[in-house]
């Protein structure tokens, strides 16, 4: 079978990684690159750096990866859809619900594969956790908490921390719990003097009644990426920087103290860190995109799911602005 010809739009910090992984992925070939700002990381190799997406389309590509600032996503995605090109757009799918919906419609109406680069879904620790939750190892899920903190990324200038960073947590939380968000209550802060928020703390309730808590900022001197899922039988803790997954088991406490005999609580039990293969998440994401194009399955993050993530993000911002709990369906 002939290799899929992939075009890459955007050769910045994320684009350079896409270029490397495309070249390392079986069944695809990097057929062209485009970036109006040139090739700062020298990843084009023997390929000519084009100035526009039309140059890539003219080169006869089958699919494209869009790794440019969010503000340009809609324009590029719609051009690629018009040309019949399957496309993976870096997260968030777009800067607002309206433009995201237009992108979704463009790809779905043409029967094209449209994916969004919510890469945390492909982290081995979270994939392993999801499998164990589905297998019932945690019992009923009660709560999901995430912490995503680190220094400010100078390359991000067109959206705030909610749409750029917290959409990771929105996506992975809904995916782990297999339930959409119902309500959110949020607080944001602007501490760095930039146009958009750089800190957010929000709680939520999913439609299946799991409660969630998320702490996200660009103001911490350390980098932290942690997801904790608490359930009937204990808690899973995933560190997605190291891709470690640990299980903390509930320990049942026997007591003869009459006043607390009827209380069914938990105490510290056994702790187990799992061993499993840890493949690069971006490689897994590209393999899923390739397989989806070839009709072989491929568990991509669909553009419609990306749209829902933006919808939740806008509910978070509305909640912070109006100091109230917001129903996501608003």
Low-confidence stretches: none
Distance between the termini: 47 Å
Mean pLDDT figure: 93
CATH architecture verdict of the largest domain: 2-Layer Sandwich
Number of helices: 8
Tertiary shape: globular
What's the level 1 CATH class of the largest domain?
Answer: Alpha Beta
H/E element sequence: EHEEHEHEHEHEHEEEEEEEHHE
CATH topological fold name of the largest domain: Dihydrodipicolinate Reductase, domain 2
Broad structural category: alpha/beta
Helix content: 25-40%
Beta-strand content bin: 25-35%
Keywords: NAD
Protein name: Gfo/Idh/MocA family oxidoreductase
GO molecular function, one term: nucleotide binding
In words, what does this structure look like?
The structure is a single chain. The protein is of the alpha/beta class and 330 residues long. It folds into 2 domains: 4-120 and 282-300, NAD(P)-binding Rossmann-like Domain (Rossmann fold, 3-Layer(aba) Sandwich), CATH 3.40.50; 123-277 and 310-327, Dihydrodipicolinate Reductase, domain 2. Helix content is 31%, strand content 28%. The strands form 2 sheets. Strands 14-13-12-11-7-10-9-8-15 form a 9-stranded mixed β-sheet. The chain has a 6-stranded parallel β-sheet with strand order 3-2-1-4-5-6, with helices on both faces. Helix 5 packs parallel to helix 6 and helix 6 crosses helix 8. The longest helix has 20 residues, at 303-322. The radius of gyration is 21 Å and the shape is globular. The mean pLDDT is 93.
């Amino acid at each position: 079978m002939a290799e899929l010809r992939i075009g890459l739009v955007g050769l910045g910090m994320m684009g350079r990684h896409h270029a490397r992984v495309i070249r390392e992925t079986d069944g695809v070939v990097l057929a062209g690159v485009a970036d109006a700002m040139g090739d700062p990381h020298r990843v084009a190799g023997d390929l000519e750096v084009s100035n526009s997406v039309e140059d890539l389309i003219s080169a006869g590509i089958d699919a494209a990866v869009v790794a440019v600032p969010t503000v340009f996503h809609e324009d590029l995605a719609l051009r690629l859809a018009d040309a019949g090109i399957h496309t993976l757009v870096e997260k968030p799918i777009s800067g607002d619900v309206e433009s995201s919906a237009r992108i979704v419609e463009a790809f779905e109406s043409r029967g094209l594969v449209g994916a969004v680069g919510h890469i945390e879904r492909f982290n081995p620790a979270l994939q392993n956790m999801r499998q164990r939750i589905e297998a019932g190892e945690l019992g009923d899920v009660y709560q999901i908490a995430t912490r995503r903190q680190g220094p400010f990324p100078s390359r991000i200038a067109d959206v705030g921390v909610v749409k750029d960073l917290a959409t990771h947590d929105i996506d992975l939380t809904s995916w782990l719990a297999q339930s959409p968000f119902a309500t959110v209550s949020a607080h944001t802060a602007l501490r760095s003097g930039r146009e958009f928020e750089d800190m957010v703390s929000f709680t939520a309730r999913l439609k299946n009644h799991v409660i969630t808590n998320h702490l996200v900022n660009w103001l911490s001197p350390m980098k932290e990426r942690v997801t904790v899922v608490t359930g009937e039988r204990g808690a899973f803790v995933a560190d997605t920087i190291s891709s470690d997954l640990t299980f903390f088991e509930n320990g049942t406490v026997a007591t003869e103290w009459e006043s607390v005999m009827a209380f069914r609580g938990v105490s510290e039990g056994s702790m187990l860190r799992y061993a499993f293969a840890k493949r690069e998440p971006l490689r897994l994401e590209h393999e899923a995109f390739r397989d989806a194009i070839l009709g072989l399955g491929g568990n991509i993050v669909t553009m419609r799911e990306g749209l829902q993530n933006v919808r939740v993000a806008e509910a978070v911002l509305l909640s912070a602005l109006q100091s109230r709990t917001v129903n996501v369906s608003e």
